[in-house]
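INSTRUCTION: Work out how this chain folds

Token vocabulary: learned, describes local backbone geometry

RECORD BEGINS BELOW THIS LINE
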Amino acid sequence: MQPTTPEPYSAPGKAAVWPPVAVPGQPGRDTGESDPAAEETATGVALTGQPAEDVAPDPEPTHGSGLLDDLRAQIARFVILPSQQTLDAVTLWVAATHLQTAWQHAPRLAVVGPAKRCGKSRLLDVITETVHDPLITVNASAAAVFRSITETPPTLLVDEADTIFGSAKVAEKNEEMRGLLNAGHQRNRPTLRVSGPNHEVSKFPTFAMAALAGIGDLPDTIMDRSVVIRMRRRRLGETVEDFRTFRDVPSLHALRDRLVAWLVPLHAEAMNLTPSMPVEDRAADTWQPLVAIADLAGGPWPGLARAACLAVTKHEAEQDQDNSSLSIRLLADIRRAFAAEGDPSAIRTARLLDILNQDDESPWPGYTDKGLTPRGLQILLKDYNIHAVNRRFPGNVQARGFTRLQFADTWARYCPEPKPESTTGA
């Protein structure tokens, strides 16, 4: 479903704030409001009428908009996000963890990147110190995780998620974890286990917000339930502050406590919110808690939240389309490889990859630093239920490969050959 452009939003008692207005002190986000502290007269008297030196410093903002501004600034100290919209999205997701029991859905935060040193773990470090009741897991079992979830759920934080889902073989061993993360996206999806000496069936809740960080995409069913943040390495000249636990954690905890003080009294109001959404279906389910937090905060945040929602979901829709186009391109290139070999009944995987990687006009030589690999081929063909198996080839050679028959139905459905033009007699 294509995202729709939202109507101007006006929170109760507040002026409309769509399209997004700017945040003071941030590039491109000028609200047009002056800073009273900066408008002292030439005589040194502030606008309050008191001498400037006698004016007490402003207390830390306790209203929602100011708190979200502070949280965003703290995250940006240590991590460079790929866009301003993704920084806004992470800020809202962190705040939403403090009202988990008010939401119908528990959005996942998928922090993924193509390689090491993209800032994934550092972002998780900052998130850990600001979310509600963090439960950090690295390669934990599904049983340990669901026994840690209660009616007042923690926030699950899974680093190195590629060790759980990074390959087909490993992912198969962790299918229970994937099922747990899928079920926990929505309320009232408990897991059942037999426990105790009487072997009684017990229900364990699965509902909890979760952030997962790893190299490469997570399983499709998890990505579909996630606010996806695609990290990338910093360019030369892009700098961030070093994160030091003893120095930086106390200020992050203080910010977390301010979030709690603001949000907990709004629990009943949050439960009754039904914010207008710029997207539909599962994307709306996933983003609704973030947009609700923005509506509670007011100021520019309702507009910023909807802009972030549109930008991130649109990017992921384009990613899905690109992946689909790539797999269809592969099917067509495999058909040409069979034709180049004289349309044999079967072809070895190694020979098929040689043909594909020798085509400089195709994307396969640059697919990885080694070109298209057997694993890459397996992943791209998985959705079509086409797999290489051991076969016997001419010369009594046994090797993994594919038969032409395996592709026949898929070719006909997804990349049929054009019909030859009919010719008519003179």
Q: What stands out?
A: The chain has 15 helices and ten strands. The first helix runs from residue 64 to 78. Residues 4-59, 421-426 have pLDDT under 50 and may be disordered. Strands lie at 108-113, 134-137, 155-158, 191-195, 200-204, 210-215, 226-230, 346-348, 389-393, 397-403.
